[in-house]
Amino acid sequence: MLTRRQALKLGATCKALRARVDPAVARGVCRTRLLVVCSGDNYLREYDLATGASVNGQTLQRPMVKHVGTEIMRHPRRGSRQQCWPTCIAISPYDGDIYVCQYKIAGVIVLHGETLKPLRVMATDSIETPEGIAFSHNCTYVASAANMSVFRLGSRLGGEPFVPWGMVTGPDDNLYVAVDRSYEARAPSYVHMPPPPDTGMVLRILLREDGTFDEPEALGDFCYGKSLRRPSGLCFDAAGNLLVTSGNDEVLRFAGPWSAHPGRFMAVLTATAPHPFDVVQHRGLVIVSSHACVQGTNDGNKPRLTVYDGESGTLLRQLKMMPRCEANMMAVE
Question: Which Gene3D superfamilies match (predicted)?
């Protein structure tokens, strides 16, 4: 079965094909792609969400770089599979390519939207340990854990004593950032919960029409009514409400920006997602990625991708993963 992207591309070739393809796309019968970046083995995996099968993949090597204008061209060392450590992923609504943040160089890897082949590395030398990427107002935004900032490529909003761990664009075209207090933890820090367990929050960054922002007026605590522990994954469901991962094995739902009470806690979608890292939704399904490494547990927990019913939170199935792949962040189309 064709993906939505492939179907639209095929329909653009002639009117006869478009007449058959467009209704199929409208009915949502195309194959859904779930893209997952895995830090343990430096791999980008593509899954068919309907079957759970892994259908494509790309090794993410650490690039040796050469500056060319405002970009860094990718030149991998021959025979090398150096650690890249990918942390977040997003599909650009503007060019359709896949953007992956990673730790080993201060940059964002850009991959071809269909083949997953590396295209380039965007130069973001001032951004350390990127943990979130989002798009709005024809701009690209990156959240940095080390800088405690959110960068619009070309400007910066930050300096607050909070560490951003994930970011998403809302239905109101503003940015929503999962943050927690700055804390010291044993390496690797992200597998250990910060004390105390209820210091996380979701910040809303209000954007102007040109994609710029004011500081500090642009920042506002959005969610209330339920504590968050080391939140990192965020997404908006079909109703425009916000889903947030919390490190105490929960995925929580908060009222969206267009509701009567924006940010108010609504419900616990699931309380059985071990150490959830990210959450995405597609056509009534909610997918949660979980890490194998959880502080204080020796129960043989394995990395997993779990699919839930978006309304009831019922566990529907789990997608098979390699033992040490360490599923981080996801994108779906």
Answer: TolB, C-terminal domain
Asked if 97 and 110 count as a contact pair (C-beta separation under 8 A), the reply is yes
Residue 21 has what pLDDT? 45
Successive 10-residue mean pLDDT values, the chain, 333 residues: 54 54 52 83 83 80 41 38 74 90 74 85 71 90 82 68 86 92 54 66 90 73 90 94 92 96 96 87 92 51 81 89 73 89
Q: Are residues 7 and 74 in the same domain?
A: no
Which residue's entry shows tokens 């690797």?
Answer: 188
Burial 145-171 (b: 16+ CB within 10 A, else e): bebbbbbbbeebbbebebbbbbbbbbe
d(CA 252, CA 241): 10
Cis amide bond preceding 130, omega within 30:
no
From CA 331, how far away is CA 118, in angstroms rounded?
A: 17
The model carries a pTM of 0.81
Q: How far apart are CA 236 and CA 67, in angstroms?
A: 37
Q: Which domain holds residue 22?
A: 1-31
Distance CA 78, CA 87 (A): 24
Residue 275 near residue 294, CB atoms below 8 Å: yes
